[in-house]
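Support request from a user on the community tier.

User writes: "When I paste my structure tokens into the form, the page sometimes reloads and wipes my input. The last time it worked, I copied everything first. Here is what I submitted, just in case something in the input itself triggers the reload:"
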């Protein structure tokens, strides 16, 4: 069985309220999308420096009103 991110695969959504303006924050995708196309092939040691592991997918959440952002770790599930 493979581990997949439920957010990346549309099985789960992230809902967060902005701590500044109290508006709804938006999910901007996994951090891996912001790296180069070869980032899935980087060593686990390098990826762990960015908070990524083979069991967790880190997503960028942002507020379009205030411009603040957060990183949220999402546990991968067996598929």
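"...and here is what came back when it finally went through:"
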């Amino acid at each position: 069985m493979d581990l997949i991110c439920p957010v990346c695969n549309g099985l789960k959504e992230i809902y967060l309220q902005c701590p500044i303006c109290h508006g709804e924050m938006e999910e901007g995708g996994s951090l891996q999308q912001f790296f180069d196309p070869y980032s899935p092939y980087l060593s686990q040691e390098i990826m762990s420096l960015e908070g990524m592991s083979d069991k967790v997918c880190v997503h960028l959440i942002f507020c379009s009103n205030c411009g603040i952002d957060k990183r949220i770790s999402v546990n991968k599930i067996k598929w």
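Agent notes: The reload is a front-end session timeout and is unrelated to the input. The helical segments are 44-48. The beta strands are 3-4, 26-30, 56-62, 69-75, 77-78. Escalated to web team.
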